[in-house]
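User: tokens in, sequence out, please.
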């Protein structure tokens, strides 16, 4: 990347602009966020004697927009202190700020004239190399740049984010014919690396890729449901996880997005695609019009296809009856033909089983809506995209579905389904028939380990282009790179002399089989052909703690010897990682809890996904961290400070105590760093698809000059005086009834461990000293009935018990 982006400006502080500004701040940028000056005073402003010239009034809109961003849940910002990175202003008084911006993003109301006027002003002020992009969802991109200078047009393109931009992966990049290819390449790369997005380059056609197909499938599911009399609940049951779609399925998604937004996008599309043979579907049916009139817009008006109802203090969701337009209590969907196959894995087999029961109600719905969606997608090639992989990628990243239309089609079998579609009058694009006529029976295939995709342009297969950091552990395993495995973990050759340990136990919880694979990998790492080790996986989360069911079983059977050994083994592995002569890089992401967090803390360095929710949560099950977690927090947070004479250890220990004692979990990797679990030398990876690849590269870079830490007196034990202060704090929380007696008991054990036990005064001790204290406290808590109650409650309900 030759360009350097220092300052970013976002115009429009509404739903999208504010959240996009926040995400640039997440990525480490300083952002100017600008909005219009209001033309009227509010009654409150009038009462206060303010005028339209008062600064508070002039920035009212942007202030309001930014306040909403700060309060948004899930949070738009990685961490609260990042608010400082965004400077607010208005388009009248602060327009000159745009002269400093290297990238100006427009996210104002969806009105062409307003966007054009704004672009004209921007054309007059931007630096020659400044990129200008629009977040429009429906206005043709080229029309927004009409009349602008050549230089402007060469730096202009569409950057279509999805809401909420921090969490939704897709970024559609839409060049116009004049856009300099260097700008397209830069934005694509920046979007992927810095903003962590899955970037798809789209043609400048209405609603681009994801929303064009998304509107089709959403509207078709409703239309077919109405025509054949399926209920809202039936449709959501049939179009959720059963077919590889998130739980929001069809109608819950509509309630979440807002019926007004969906209807607007759909109506807009109708006007823009006169030649689309399925255009009539984009007209909103009477049901939707009625709902719009009655303000049944979804979650924002507390009623849409579902309505939140409170009865006897209990929350329930009633369901809209599409005939009577009244809400009714939820009922269980009865579709035995689906029930019997809904657990089939993998997705392709399940889909085949679902659609392979013609005449059955659930089967017919899934078949017909899926077939229509696949056929429509084929008919949009080459209009919206030349390559099928872009379409599949856009749908997966935009809607969180497990497979795009062409991948789904492959799973169901292209020749068989095309035959069935023909028989039922569902029209597939001629290029699909041509492909079949050539004897090609799938859109994708793998040749010598390389994934290939059929190109309707060349009528041959071409390689699917991927970034080299997109390492697929499943792919490596299928290429014979799995060196060793058991039921819970695998050791994989990641290439370039880097080993990988992949957890695949249930919930990726730590157990002794993972320990065995780790031990084997650490032995193997000592051989000269290996340079480093990466610990990570590509499942749902990094690791949700240790296997507490086994721990509890042993405790109930009073198997103290085996339990003692279990913890010693875990600590032993973690210490081997920590002092490994070659770098061990952990690659946490998503849930990284308890034992999972301890694995990360024990590694030489961490390459964390930006979305890492990390915490030592053991107190939730009546325990304290005993895999080195307490020791690591003291070593990382307190010990560096104690190198300075006369520093008071108490505030540092209070901080650790509160974090561990309240089972605090970070809401991002940035917050994990603020909590002291990541340090400055660790890296944060914005794009989860690159996580293993980046961790591998990190290990390789480290390997060149790596010096393991020395196993010396590395940890500061603050001793009795600080313990007494922490105990006083626990006592006052108990007195104030903020915690239970048993919380206090666990708290006292935790405080004892964190301060290094009964040491009369502060001193440096070796790591083993802390590990022994952790283990003793852990075992003694396991001897308590209330801890066993907490564990069994967690196992049964997934929630902590406060006893
Ligand atoms: P919004 O209505 O929440 O925010 C629009 C912002 O534009 C407001 O802060 C408003 O004060 C400002 N504005 C109004 N008139 C203006 C003018 N004359 N000059 C400058 N600013 C003005 O809208 P939202 O949803 O944030 O949409 C912004 C853009 O992003 C639109 O083009 C929309 O199509 C697109 N988009 C929206 C998505 C969504 O889910 N809401 C998703 C992707 C794109």
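Assistant: Sequence out:
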């Amino acid at each position: 990347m030759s360009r350097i982006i220092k300052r970013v400006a976002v115009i429009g502080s509404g739903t999208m602009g504010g959240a996009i500004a926040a995400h640039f701040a997440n990525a480490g940028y300083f952002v100017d966020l600008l909005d219009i000056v209001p033309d009227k005073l509010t009654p409150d402003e009038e009462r206060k004697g303010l005028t339209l010239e008062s600064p508070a009034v002039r920035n009212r809109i942007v202030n309001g927009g930014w306040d909403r961003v700060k309060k948004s849940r899930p949070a738009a910002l990685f961490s609260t202190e990042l608010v400082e990175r965004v400077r607010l202003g208005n388009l009248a008084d602060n327009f000159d700020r745009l002269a400093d911006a290297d990238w100006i993003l427009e996210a104002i109301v969806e009105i062409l004239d307003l966007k054009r006027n704004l672009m004209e002003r921007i054309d007059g002020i931007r630096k020659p190399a400044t990129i200008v992009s629009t977040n429009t969802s429906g206005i043709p991109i080229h029309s927004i740049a009409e009349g602008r200078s050549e230089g402007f047009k060469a730096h202009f393109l569409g950057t279509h984010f999805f809401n909420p931009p921090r969490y939704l992966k897709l970024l559609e990049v839409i060049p116009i014919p004049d856009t300099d290819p260097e700008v397209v390449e830069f934005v694509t790369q920046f979007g992927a690396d810095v903003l962590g997005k899955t970037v798809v380059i789209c043609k400048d056609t209405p609603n681009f890729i994801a929303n064009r197909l998304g509107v089709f499938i959403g509207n078709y599911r409703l239309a077919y449901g109405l025509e054949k009399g399926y209920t809202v609940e039936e449709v959501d049951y049939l179009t959720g996880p059963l077919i590889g779609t998130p739980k929001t399925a069809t109608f819950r998604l509509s309630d979440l997005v807002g019926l007004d937004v969906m209807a607007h996008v759909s109506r807009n599309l109708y006007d823009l695609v006169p030649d689309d043979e399925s255009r009539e579907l984009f007209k909103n049916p009477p049901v939707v019009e009625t709902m719009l009139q009655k303000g049944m817009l979804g979650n924002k008006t507390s009623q849409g296809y579902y309505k939140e109802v409170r009865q006897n203090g209990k929350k329930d969701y009633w369901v809209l009856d599409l005939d009577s337009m009244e809400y009714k209590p939820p009922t269980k969907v009865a579709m035995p033909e689906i029930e019997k196959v809904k657990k089939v894995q993998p997705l392709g087999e399940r889909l085949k089983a679902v659609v392979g029961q013609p005449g059955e109600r659930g089967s017919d719905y899934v078949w017909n809506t899926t077939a229509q969606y696949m056929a429509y997608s084929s008919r949009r090639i080459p209009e919206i995209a030349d390559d099928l992989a872009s379409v599949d990628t856009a749908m997966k990243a935009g809607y969180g579905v497990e497979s795009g239309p062409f991948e789904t089609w492959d799973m169901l079998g292209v020749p068989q389904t095309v035959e069935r579609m023909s028989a039922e009058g569902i029209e597939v694009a001629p290029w699909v028939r041509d492909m079949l006529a050539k004897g090609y029976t799938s859109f994708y295939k793998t040749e010598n380990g390389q994934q290939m995709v059929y190109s309707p342009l060349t009528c041959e297969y071409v390689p699917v282009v991927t970034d080299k950091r997109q390492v697929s552990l499943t792919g490596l395993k299928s290429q014979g790179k799995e060196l060793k495995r058991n039921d819970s973990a695998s050791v994989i050759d990641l290439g370039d002399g880097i080993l990988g340990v992949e957890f695949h136990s249930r919930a990726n919880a730590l157990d002794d089989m993972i320990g065995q694979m780790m031990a084997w990998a650490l032995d193997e790492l000592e051989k000269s052909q290996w340079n480093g080790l990466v610990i990570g996986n590509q499942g749902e989360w990094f690791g949700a703690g240790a296997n507490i069911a086994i721990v509890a079983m042993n405790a109930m059977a009073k198997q103290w010897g085996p339990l003692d050994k279990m913890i010693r083994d875990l600590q032993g592995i973690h210490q081997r990682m920590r002092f490994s002569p070659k770098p061990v890089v952990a690659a946490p992401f998503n849930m990284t809890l308890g034992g999972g967090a301890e694995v990360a803390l024990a590694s030489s360095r961490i390459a964390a996904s930006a979305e890492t929710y990390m915490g030592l949560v053991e107190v939730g099950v009546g325990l304290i961290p005993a895999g080195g977690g307490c020791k690591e927090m003291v070593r990382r947070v307190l010990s560096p400070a104690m190198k300075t004479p006369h520093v008071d250890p108490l505030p540092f220990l209070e901080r650790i105590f509160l974090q561990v004692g309240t089972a605090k979990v970070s809401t991002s990797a940035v917050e994990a760093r603020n909590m002291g679990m990541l340090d400055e030398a660790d890296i944060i990876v914005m794009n989860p698809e690159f996580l293993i690849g980046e961790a591998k590269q990190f290990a390789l870079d480290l390997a060149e000059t790596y010096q393991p830490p020395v196993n010396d007196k590395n940890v500061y034990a603050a001793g009795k005086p600080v313990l007494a202060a922490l105990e006083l704090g626990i006592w006052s929380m108990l007195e104030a009834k903020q915690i239970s007696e048993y919380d206090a008991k666990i708290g006292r054990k935790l405080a004892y461990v964190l301060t290094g036990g009964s040491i009369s005064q502060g001193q440096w001790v070796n790591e083993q000293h802390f590990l022994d204290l952790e283990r003793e406290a852990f075992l003694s808590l396991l001897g308590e009935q209330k801890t066993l109650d907490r564990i069994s409650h967690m196992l049964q309900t997934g929630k902590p018990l406060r006893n």
